[in-house]
């Protein structure tokens, strides 16, 4: 069964979540007591998928199979219902993620780079194969899908024909999306319903491809995806060359305390220093101040034992102007 759980449920409702099909949580800390998340204990982590299947060492395949070639990992839709997807075995908690991707061609095909937390905070890049000059950015806070004006569609040159570097820089204060090093979107904490819709809990990285334009999808989803998939055109392939992650709060585990889903409620165990030195050689890692010029927020980096993240709430008050509804989206909703 492909992971269409959320879509299956959404099809019954009028409102549609225009996020990826990979959104799912096995335990939602907002109303459950969940086991701790495994953290990325090192400050940096990288995967070079051109090295073949051994590069999946720190990833889990959650759907389908992954092929490897000179362009890296290949996520292939070879037939209907294929939706190969992988996710990191660990979570990271604020930081930077850089993905080199060549998205899949094909009407209705979605190549997605998703960061997802246990309480369904979500940060997205979604390349729609129907369009060769743009990519979608999106985000969700705590699975709040009541409004669909969060997506933007920055320009990118033929994303299905060439590799581009898609980067997210995620802090307590703002989220930035960059393409090939150029900032294309900024989301301030306060502008996301005073932070309530702001993604702020430890995330896994998920990479995958799926058919938003499958005939089984709702009308709105198919419209959003750019039209119905023509399976005569298979295979559709998304390529990922590499992934680089910087974890601003490296730790062995992340635990939600309470049910607010706020970043202040996340407790780190065995957090390590925030430096470029990996934990495996941490005997000489010093405090973050020696390697990081940024010290605008104080977190638990100086702690080597369990402690909560004591970050003062983002104080920025600038207003983020919500981007206009995208035409395709409007068209999709008007059909409902
Ligand atoms: C628990 O959270 C899930 C996911 O957000 C939600 O579907 C469910 O309604 C919640 N249950 C309660 C009792 O709040
Ligand atoms: C990688 O591929 C080789 C050869 O096909 C296979 O023997 C091995 O089990 C694979 N390793 C993983 C981690 O999938
Ligand atoms: C990656 O996987 C290897 C082999 O399983 C493991 O030793 C290592 O700790 C993992 N690294 C991270 C950052 O998860
Ligand atoms: C993408 O698909 C379109 C429509 O089928 C086709 O015209 C175009 O050549 C394809 N581009 C690539 C790079 O495969
Ligand atoms: C969900 O988001 C909408 C705006 O998109 C906001 O008006 C609403 O208050 C949010 N709900 C919660 C529970 O935060
Ligand atoms: C934290 O580190 C201590 C000492 O190295 C170790 O005994 C303990 O198992 C670690 N705890 C976790 C949750 O990794
Ligand atoms: C740690 O690194 C500093 C700066 O590079 C160096 O001066 C010092 O000798 C190192 N200490 C150890 C124990 O390696
Ligand atoms: C780690 O460094 C980044 C900037 O490089 C900073 O934003 C983050 O708050 C730091 N984290 C900790 C725990 O000091
Ligand atoms: C750790 O950081 C906190 C918050 O910035 C600070 O109050 C505390 O004194 C620091 N502790 C050490 C040992 O540096």
Task: Write the SSE topology.
Layout: H1 5-10, E1 37-38, E2 44-48, E3 59-63, E4 67-69, E5 72-77, E6 85-88, E7 95-102, E8 109-117, E9 122-128, E10 136-140, E11 164-170, E12 174-179, E13 182-188, E14 203-211, H2 219-224, E15 236-247, E16 253-256, E17 266-269, E18 307-308, H3 327-334
Antiparallel strand pairs: 1-16, 2-15, 3-6, 4-5, 5-15, 6-14, 7-11, 7-15, 8-9, 8-14, 9-10, 11-12, 12-13, 16-17, 17-18
The chain binds 2-acetamido-2-deoxy-beta-D-glucopyranose (9 copies).
Membrane topology: Lipid-anchor; GPI-anchor
Disulfide bonds: 27-34
Organism: Penicilliopsis zonata CBS 506.65
Give structural attributes:
binds 2-acetamido-2-deoxy-beta-D-glucopyranose, about 325 residues, mainly beta, disordered N terminus, about 5% helix, Jelly Rolls, eight-stranded antiparallel sheet, globular, disordered C terminus
Radius of gyration: 19 Å
Query: Total helix count?
Result: 3
The shape, in one word, is globular
Low-pLDDT sequence parts: 1-21, 276-336
Bound ions, cofactors and other small molecules, one mention each: 2-acetamido-2-deoxy-beta-D-glucopyranose
Helix content: under 10%
The structural class is mainly beta
- Beta-strand content: 25-35%
CATH domain topology of the domain at 39-269: Jelly Rolls
Q: What would you note in describing this structure?
A:
There is one protein chain. The chain is mostly beta strands and 336 residues long. The protein has a domain at 39-269: Jelly Rolls, CATH 2.60.120.200. It has helices at 5-10, 219-224, 327-334, and strands at 37-38, 44-48, 59-63, 67-69, 72-77, 85-88, 95-102, 109-117, 122-128, 136-140, 164-170, 174-179, 182-188, 203-211, 236-247, 253-256, 266-269, 307-308. The strands form three sheets. Strands 2, 4, 5, 7, 11, 12, 13 and 15 form an eight-stranded antiparallel β-sheet that branches. Strands 3-6-14-8-9-10 form a six-stranded antiparallel β-sheet, with no helix packed on it. Strands 1-16-17-18 form a four-stranded antiparallel β-sheet, with no helix packed on it. It is globular. Residues 298, 302 line the site of one 2-acetamido-2-deoxy-beta-D-glucopyranose.
């Amino acid at each position: 069964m492909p992971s269409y759980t959320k879509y299956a449920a959404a099809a019954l409702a009028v409102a549609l979540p225009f996020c990826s099909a990979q959104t799912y949580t096995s335990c939602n800390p907002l109303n459950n007591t969940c086991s701790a998340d495994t953290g990325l204990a090192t400050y940096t982590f990288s995967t070079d998928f051109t090295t073949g299947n051994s590069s999946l060492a720190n990833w889990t395949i959650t759907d389908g199979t992954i092929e490897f070639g000179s362009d890296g990992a290949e996520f292939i839709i070879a037939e209907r219902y294929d939706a190969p997807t992988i996710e990191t075995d660990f979570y990271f908690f604020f930081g930077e993620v850089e993905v080199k991707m060549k998205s899949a061609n094909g009407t209705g095909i979605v190549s997605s780079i998703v960061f997802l937390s246990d309480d369904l905070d979500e940060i997205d890049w979604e390349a729609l194969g129907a369009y060769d000059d743009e990519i979608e950015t999106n985000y969700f806070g705590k699975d709040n899908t009541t409004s669909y004006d969060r997506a933007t569609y920055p320009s990118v040159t033929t994303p299905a024909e060439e590799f581009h570097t898609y980067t997210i820089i995620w802090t307590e204060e703002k989220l930035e999306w960059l393409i090939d090093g150029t900032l294309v979107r900024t989301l301030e904490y306060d502008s996301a319903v005073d932070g309530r819709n702001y993604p702020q809990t430890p995330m896994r990285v998920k990479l995958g491809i799926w058919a938003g334009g499958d005939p089984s999808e709702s009308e709105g989803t198919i419209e959003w995806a750019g039209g119905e998939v023509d399976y005569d055109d298979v295979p559709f392939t998304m390529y990922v060359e590499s992934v680089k992650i910087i974890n601003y709060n490296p730790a062995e585990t992340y635990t939600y305390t309470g049910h607010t889903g706020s970043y202040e409620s996340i407790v780190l165990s065995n957090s390590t220093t925030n430096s470029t030195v990996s934990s495996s050689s941490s005997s000489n890692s010093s405090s973050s101040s020696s390697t990081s010029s940024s010290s605008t927020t104080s977190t638990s980096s100086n702690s080597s034992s369990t402690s909560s993240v004591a970050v003062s709430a983002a104080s920025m008050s600038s207003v983020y102007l919500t981007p206009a509804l995208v035409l395709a989206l409007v068209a999709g909703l008007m059909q409902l």
